[in-house]
Amino acid sequence: MSASTSSTPAIYGLTAEFVNPSELVAAANRARIAGYRNMDAYSPMPIEELNEALALPKTRLPRLVLAGGIAGTVLGMGLEYWASTIAYPMNIGGRPEFTWPSFIPVAYETTILGAALSAVVGMIVLNGLPQPYHPVFNAPRFHRASQDRFFLCIESADPQFDRQGTEQFLKGLGPQEVTEVAW
Amino acid sequence: MTQTNYAAPADFIARSRPALMAGVVGVVLCGIGFAVAREQFYRAYLIGYLLWLGIPLGSMALLMVHHLSGGAWGVVIRRIFEASSRTLPLLAILFLPIAAGMHSLYPWTNETLVAHDHILHAKSPYLNTPFFLVRAVIYFACWIGLSTLLSKWSLAQDGGDVNAARKMQRLSGAGLVIYGLTITFAAVDWVMSLNPKWFSTIMGFLFMGGHGLIALAFTVVIATALARRAPMDHVFKPVHFHDLGKLMLAFVMLWAYFNFSQFLIIYSGNLAEEVPYYITRLSNGWQYVALGLLLLHFVLPFSMLLSRDLKRNANRLITIAVLVIVMRLVDIAFLVSPEFNSAGANLHAGEDAVSSAFVNWLDVAAPLAIGGIWVAYFLRQLGSRPLLPLREPDLAKAIAATGGH
Predict the structure, then answer these.
(1) Distance CA B384, CA B154 (A)
(2) Does one domain contain both A52 and A24?
(3) CA angle B263, B265, B267 (to 5 degrees)
(4) Which of A49, A66, A102 sits opposite B402 (nearest CB)?
(5) Distance in angstroms (rounded) separating the CA atoms of residues B186 and B21
(6) Which secondary-structure segment (H or E) carries B162?
(7) pLDDT tens per residue across all 405 residues of chain B
(8) How many domains does chain A have?
(9) How far, CA to CA in Å, does B75 sit from each of A172, B8, B145, B184, B379?
């Protein structure tokens, strides 16, 4: 969207439709090598190789999960400490009130709970969900990305995006069809 | 697939010579120890033996798990597992010093002691010298039988036997049950009976977890060395080390889980016949060993292995693998040594004595002696076959550019 372009792109991007996952991975690899970064792939099932092919940035999710897990440990152990030494201290078999070895299983469970919840919530938030509208659904036949087609979308936000040049490039990748995606 | 036959690199297999020389140095040191401090020698030998026994047994167990589950992680290291499990006949021979040292190691072999002690007398139908030896023969017969058949069929598969995979899979199901039972009894016989009045039903699992862990750590060391040389430099990919690292992480957690289960149950029960085990190990200096184990056998490897980048980098993963192998030695010493006094005499053999933390130079010499000989024999076994199962149906997928799982 630099000033030198004659008109601001009026479209979201261009999609290329492929019939199998290996074509999609090959296309994504070539697009990355050609310098495109603002692009995404859509497929009916997870394709591990796409992470590398699309040069996706590292996700921050692991750190969130670690933080959630540590918070779970602290909260679980803290709850047990509070309950057994402050709120309702009891002498059980002459053991100390803060019998930490016995508290580990519960603190472990709350660790898992904290980590799992932050993984689910973090995944949803980092993915920008819920998202009631996304322009890529304007692409004709895009519903087949949930069935049997594989789409690569180069977005107009990419600095290298050029309405004609990018279309030629995508057509050179051997797709079924290249279509415009309206905003 | 390419035409290469994946022969082991000669310069790597030639390392069996320095390993053997290290072993000979260890044997000489053990010989001196045997002459001057026989009880210390037997105790240290038991520790060293149990350390190295874990690698072939863990390899055999993981090999059987792989035959049942499949997966690229196992295809690329199958020949390392097989070579390792073929060393079991050597370990059967190396068991002889333990059989010879029974009377020094195990108090229940002392007939006068048994005659005057009601508990030991009641246990004597199981804990007696002939039956102990018969059981050891049974364990080794099972282990050698399983590992020999698995290796034989794997070689037959290379030769074109299409039924081999099915046979290996069938045997592995029963084999894992046999391994679980034999190692449970072996752990009771060889370690738990050092203190014949104490019992823990999870002892066998502690050994299974330890075996899986040291077998994976050792395999990472060998795989990293092989990945630096042709022909395996094109085979091992970050994804393979990633899988091995994940499995190591799982076994580190499993080890901690089993140990904590035993500790929590004994701590909560607080029964007079169970707690002495932990009272001994949490006082007189042993508590620092316990703390060291907690930090270096669990916390450190666990936190490091969480990192995806570390697991995918063989050169960094190998440092964790070496740490794990060293900590396995400390863990086994922590199971065995606190049952002895610092002169190497079993505490339960005579009047009750207290064990203070100690380490003897034989604790290094014995693992060196057994390890040197074992590694030399292992490398010979590794060199005797192609480094990959050439006609394994999943091979092409496992070594494809992206690497499978």
Answers:
(1) 13
(2) yes
(3) 65
(4) A49
(5) 30
(6) none
(7) 445 778 888 888 889 999 999 999 999 999 999 999 999 999 999 999 999 999 999 999 999 999 999 888 888 999 999 999 999 999 999 999 999 999 999 999 988 889 888 999 999 999 999 999 999 999 999 999 999 999 999 999 988 888 888 999 999 999 999 999 999 999 999 999 999 999 999 999 999 999 999 999 999 999 999 998 888 888 888 889 999 999 999 999 999 999 999 999 999 988 988 999 999 999 999 999 999 999 999 999 999 999 888 999 889 999 999 999 999 999 999 999 999 988 888 888 876 678 888 999 999 999 999 999 999 999 999 999 988 888 888 787 777 755 555
(8) 2
(9) 38, 16, 22, 28, 19
Closest-CA residue of chain A to B257: A105
Q: Which residues contact A99 (CB under 8 A, 6 or more apart)?
A: A84, A92
CA B282, CA B284: separation in Å to the nearest integer?
Answer: 7
Separation CA B308–CA A62 (nearest Å): 10
**A51 falls within a domain:** yes
pTM, whole model, 2 decimals?
Answer: 0.86
| Cβ within 8 Å, pair B402-A48 | yes
Closest residue of chain B to A92, computed from CA coordinates? B268
Angstrom distance (rounded) from CA B402 to CA B219: 21
Same domain, A78 and A54: no
Record: contact A62-B267, CB cut-off 8 A: no
Task: Give the start-to-end residue ranges of the domains of chain B.
Answer: 10-400
Is residue A50 domain-shared with residue A71, that is, in the same domain?
A: no
Residue A74, domain extent: 61-126
Q: Tell me: do A54 and A65 sit in the same domain.
A: no
Distance CA A35, CA B181 (A): 59
The tokens describing A48, both together, are: 């591990």
DSSP code, position A171? H
